[in-house]
Amino acid sequence: MKSSQLLVITLALTTVVSCKKNTLVEQVDVPATPIEVVKVKNGFSNATDVKAIEGAFKMYELPYVYKALEPNFDATTIEIHYSKHHLGYVNNLNKAVIGTKYEFLKLNDIFKNLNLADTEIRNNAGGFYNHNFFWENMSANAGGEPEGDLMEAIVRDFVSFDGFRSQFTEASLKVFGSGWTWLVSDKSGKLRIVTTPNNDNPLMKNLGFSGIPLLNLDMWEHAYYLKFQNRKRDYVNTFFSVINWSEVLKKYDAFPKVAVSATTTTTILNETNVPADVKSTLVPVEESK
Question: I need a surface site. Which of 109, 167, 180, 216 has the fewest CB within 10 A?
Fold first, then answer.
């Protein structure tokens, strides 16, 4: 073979390899995915700029600025919790109810008519309500112990306030994964501590118990992880420094109670014998079309 022919063949093979190489580079040359940075406003916002998409339900407006609960709960966690997680539930609920039997129902009525198999409505309506309740029962310069009829009921049903606090704390620490801890009352005024998984709450039917919610604690990791990491007990203990007991007392005093025995009883977690006909009220800040 002549040297000129060998040169031509060599050049041709080089060109083919070069083309394949260039093709491979083009296939894998994908721009890096940008990392989304969560922006916060140093805790001074009163959250009025956080708006849900147009729909049946609107965001509950925080009665305090993000940094109001410091040093107990940090402003960054409160802001992300409210403006990202809580907002997400409201937006998703507004979209999920469209075209369903829930579209024109108020939040309380959604729970009364809820089919637990409707998981999108269940999760987002629960997330909306539970967070409204959570924010409302906290405030700056709060904590301490309740007064009035509520304190009498706590002593009656938990022996002492310390007994209540201990049982509430231990119940919270036993929440596996994501969920909520609740202090609820039956129609007689008897208090119980219950826990719910995910975003379930005592107003939902067929959960095995019911009751009038008085107080709740968010045990999802997003509620505490930035500040407390895996120190869940520290988180629960700190919660007692921000409980707005005057608000909890309002909820307890707001419904009429039937006579109850003065005999001291023991609270059982997730008790199932709460009367099924408890009239559930006190859903904070609900909006409907």
Answer: 109
Side chain identity at residue 236, one-letter code: V
Whether omega for the bond prior to residue 63 falls within 30 degrees of 0, making it cis, is: no
Asked if 195 and 171 touch (Cβ cutoff 8 Å), the reply is yes
Which tokens sit at 23?
């093709």
Q: Which tokens in the block code for residue 119?
A: 């998981």
Beta pairing partners, 218 = 180
Rounded to 5 degrees, what are φ and ψ at 131? -70, -40
Round to whole Å and give the CA distance between 265 and 190.
9
Residue 128 φ then ψ, to 5° = -65, -55
For 276: left if phi > 0, alpha if psi spans -120 to 50, otherwise beta; the answer is alpha
Q: Hey, what are 282's tokens?
A: 């006190």
∠ CA 121-208-222, rounded to 5°: 50
Q: Report how far residue 40's alpha carbon sits from residue 79's, in angstroms, rounded to the nearest whole number.
A: 7
For the beta sheet containing 191-197, the strands, ordered from the edge strand earlier in sequence to the opposite edge, are 191-197, 179-185, 212-218
pLDDT in tens, 141-151: 999 999 999 99
pTM of the model: 0.76
Task: Summarize pLDDT for 172-213 with one digit per residue, the tens.
Answer: 999 999 999 999 999 999 999 999 999 999 999 889 888 999
- Integer Cα distance of 155 and 17 in angstroms: 84
